[in-house]
Amino acid sequence: MAQMNRRRALQLLAALGTTGLAAGCGSGNDDGEQTGSGSPIKVGLIVPGSGANKAIGDEITNGFQLFLSMRGQQIAGHPVTLVTAEEGDTAATGKAAVDRLLKEGVLALTGVVSPTVMTGIKDAVEEARVPLLGSNASPSTLQGVVYIWRTSYVLTEPGEALGEYLRQKLDASSRIAIFGTRGLGSQDVVKGLRRAYERGRRLTEDPIFTDDDPNPSRTLYSGPIRKALERKPDAVFCHYSGAQAVQFVKQLYALGYRGPIYAPGFLTEGTALDQLDDGEKGRERKLIQSYGIETALNYSADLNNTANRIFASAYRKTFNSAPTTYAMASYDAALVLDKAIRLAGSNPSPQQVNLALGKVGQVDSPRGTWQFNQTRTPQQKWYLRRVQTDGRLLSNVVINELATLG
Q: How far apart are CA 269 and CA 322, in angstroms?
């Protein structure tokens, strides 16, 4: 389907409303029958309410709440109270959020944006024996867990998906300038890139890790970029999101780079792409169109499957914006929890729900069908997205499938 038609179709679906669509998807149990006789339950949502990650936290909140609104504020026939706790950005603030939600008597936990927080709350969650469905990318060091599940992905995977693609696309002598922030996230992404790319060849440039400043100045990346451009790279690979992504791309172009950019999808996810789009006559839009930005992600709002048409239409109608991978993964966390609670019985304990999570099987998701692997993360498809004009706006448009990872 043409890009313009895809967008128009989603807009028309949104204009028609979501009631009929939700019914078609099944607004109650798995055979479509609405039930509401279960006892009330509480679910704890851990998200940042301020700071650099607030936008991601908002998307995660939106995704979970959208599922509830489409199911009559129920999960598996149980009326749900969603209790939110502030994540913060340290292990201590994350643990405080977990402790508060446990005192509320939650049946399960979800959310968590920061890899640092996820690592920091591991022991508290495992000791409490309450399942946590993490809905953002998690570090590869999070191993040996029983009660922590992820509906997003492990941070090595976007680098791995792109590494194989670049190995096939670029000449072996190509120089790739690699950028990212200091911290677990970029280290994992680069690790995945190396794992897939360095099969019979090697990356000749050392990664350049920059300050992890949530509000970067207009010159923060200038020094590292100048240093990299002296080597005349054939391509740039980078790991940034939000305000950092916007400033990095702007400064890269301002300093004269004229070549392709490759990155995990959050470089252009959410509001970042809107801020990079300076209009039809804008300089940055012309550079993006001329030289290209391609990203790897497990989701795009234009995926053409029934589950995504329902989800994307409802999301646009409710929040007046396109859904992101963060919202999708949180929506899926609610979907998986719904399935697990049905399997666990009418009055489940957290331990019974956790056991049932291992039995949910295939999940019919907006991203496409996936299932949990042995490490409690999704086995799923990865997509290559290119920034292109879709109507009058820049959009992330899926152009190919890259790999199935997990």
A: 10
Nearest Cα residue to 4 out of 395, 376, 374, 316: 395
Q: What is the pTM of this model?
A: 0.87
What are the b/e assignments for 161-185, b being 16+ CB within 10 Å?
Answer: bbbbbbbeebeeeebbbbbbbeebb
Phi and psi at residue 82, to the nearest 5°: -95, 115
Euclidean distance between CA atoms 399 and 387, whole angstroms: 10
How far separated are the first and last CA of the chain, in Å rounded?
29
**How does pLDDT run across 113-146, given as a tens digit for each residue?**
998 999 999 999 999 999 999 999 989 999 999 9
d(CA 172, CA 207): 18
Residues 6+ apart with CB under 8 A from 33: none
Question: What is the spatial distance between Cα 69 and Cα 277, in angstroms, rounded to a whole number?
Answer: 32
Token digits for 387? 């920034």
User: So what's the pLDDT on residue 270?
Assistant: 82
Say what the pLDDT of residue 183 is.
84
Considering 3-7, 8-12, 18-22, 53-57, the range whose residues carry the highest mean pLDDT is 53-57
Instruction: Tell me which amino acid residue 8 is.
Output: R
Confidence of residue 254 (pLDDT cuts 50, 70, 90): very high
Residue 140: both structure tokens together: 């590869």
Say how far apart CA 383 and CA 229 lie, in whole Å. 29
Beta strands 261-264 and 293-297 are: parallel
Estimate to the nearest angstrom the gap between the alpha carbon of 53 and the chain centroid.
13
One-letter identity of residue 282: G
